[in-house]
Amino acid sequence: MYKLDDGLVLGENENVHGSIIGMAVDYLTRFAMGADVMDAFDISCKGAVIAEQMFQQKGTLKKVGKLLSGINGIDDQSIVNACKIVTYDVWLRNPMGALMAKGENETNPDADTVNNIKIMVERSISFWNKYGPIVKDGFTFEPDGYTKTVDSGDGDYLTADTLWDFKVTKSKPTNKHTLQLLMYWIMGQHSGQEIYKNIQKLGIFNPRLNIVYLLDMKSISKEIITEVERDIICY
Fold it and tell me: Could you tell me which residues are beta bridge partners of residue 214?
């Protein structure tokens, strides 16, 4: 565990769900580091297509296009737009749940929330300046990593030797978070992609706490890896 210190303190109160904040921080960081805005918000855009074309959410693509055009950095308006856009992720990840979720019209981050997101994006950029460069973001496990039991899933970032996940929770990582990363590592090894061959560590960065967590794969027994392969992913 490594604590980074920028001398800044986040506000206590936020008026937007933590999952929205997490996605906004993640995608804005990708954009701020040079990704095209359409690529940075790729999942949101795909969700918007599903919402309009499959669930008759008329005007969705036009609204998302307008919001995307207003993202220029990490100024206040860009952050507000990002929070609204990421509400469309759920249409890709869980379309039936999307019908019950809060949409962009109900997602209006206040000044404290916007400022917290700005600080977390700035922390994320500083983190990558130290632990990067990023080799791949938004990674998946085609062609051979998925199974009938685990047939989807995408990770956050890969560097040369580490598989990284971003969390903006107020508490330290749980066993569930570690298991998810271990599953990603195993699926990467099974995927057939060369990019996973040199991954030797699992990492979590929490820009809310400004803490880096690292786990060397050598510290995980072969028995545990075999158990996850057999009983959870079901190869």
Answer: 203
